[in-house]
């Protein structure tokens, strides 16, 4: 599943090819994504210039003159830049044709993504309740400590809650809690400010590193069949249940927490 780093890398990869370009046409081959692509998307966006290419949580926002196209990659979606009339392949559901001849092509085998239109992104149902971006200064230990005081939910579920902070997916939550030495089952309101400081530090560091790796892995968004893969990262706990902890050698524990696989070291994390 594309996580925040993949989405951010997609954003920075497509931006130079589409920024300040006018949309000539939107071709929709399959409207039935997670939500139906609006019928009028082509008319609403025609002859409009792409002014800003933004990311909010895992949404890509193409800001035009009169509104915003919201794109989510769902479980299996990807975007790529087509410059050479590459033939349409299976699951290439949408093409956005630009005045410079470039096509922004949306591919999504499982169709859990979405492409929507809004005039007011700030108040849009999908965006209005999102917490701060993890890599901004608004996400800090004062903030996280304050909002945790009335929350007895497990710390792992707390940091994966999009209303608290966006973009901390399952892999990153497992890894950041290990790095900070915090047991993922511990109630959010029982964790001290000093430990939140550590946790915030590692969440930022792990996400920033993933984006950096992505920048080198996904160098090239241009090409007919260049499908972006996901980032190869060194993982300390995720996917390593019942294997020895890399720090102390004890076997890592694995349970489901909120239906998501959770791995931790009972010796190093408390
Ligand atoms: Zn350990």
TrEMBL record:
It catalyses: Hydrolysis of DNA containing ring-opened 7-methylguanine residues, releasing 2,6-diamino-4-hydroxy-5-(N-methyl)formamidopyrimidine; 2'-deoxyribonucleotide-(2'-deoxyribose 5'-phosphate)-2'-deoxyribonucleotide-DNA = a 3'-end 2'-deoxyribonucleotide-(2,3-dehydro-2,3-deoxyribose 5'-phosphate)-DNA + a 5'-end 5'-phospho-2'-deoxyribonucleoside-DNA + H(+). Binds 1 zinc ion per subunit. CDD domains: EcFpg-like_N (cd08966). SMART domains: Fapy_DNA_glyco (SM00898), H2TH (SM01232). Gene3D superfamilies: 1.10.8.50, MutM-like, N-terminal (3.20.190.10). DNA binds at residues 91, 110, 151. Residues 236-270 form the FPG-type domain. Its EC number is 3.2.2.23, 4.2.99.18. It comes from the Bacteria. One of its GO terms (biological process) is base-excision repair. The active site is at 2 (schiff-base intermediate with dna), 3 (proton donor), 58 (proton donor), 260 (proton donor). Keywords: DNA damage, DNA repair, DNA-binding, Glycosidase, Hydrolase, Lyase, Metal-binding, Multifunctional enzyme, Zinc, Zinc-finger. GO terms for molecular function: 8-oxo-7,8-dihydroguanine DNA N-glycosylase activity; class I DNA-(apurinic or apyrimidinic site) endonuclease activity; damaged DNA binding; zinc ion binding. Its cofactor is Zn(2+). Residues 2-113 form the Formamidopyrimidine-DNA glycosylase catalytic domain. Belongs to the FPG family. Monomer. NCBIfam families: fpg, PRK01103.1. Involved in base excision repair of DNA damaged by oxidation or by mutagenic agents. Acts as DNA glycosylase that recognizes and removes damaged bases. Has a preference for oxidized purines, such as 7,8-dihydro-8-oxoguanine (8-oxoG). Has AP (apurinic/apyrimidinic) lyase activity and introduces nicks in the DNA strand. Cleaves the DNA backbone by beta-delta elimination to generate a single-strand break at the site of the removed base with both 3'- and 5'-phosphates. This is Formamidopyrimidine-DNA glycosylase. It comes from Entomomonas moraniae.
